[in-house]
User: What shape does this take?
Amino acid sequence: MVPQTQENPSQSSPRKDTYAIGELSRLVNLSQRTIRYYEEIGLLHSVRRIENGKRVFTDGDVRRL
Assistant: This one.
């Protein structure tokens, strides 16, 4: 019997597609105000907002920060 070397994809933790500003802040260890400032000066582009006006960040934003 050969040991299995590949991880079963169903067992790996799912990646999250979007993040609220508080989640992003904790992930990248920056204040929410700093993240808003980076958006304001153009370091983060195309930040989406949901119906209630809250910002929604992506994995791309996590990588950029």
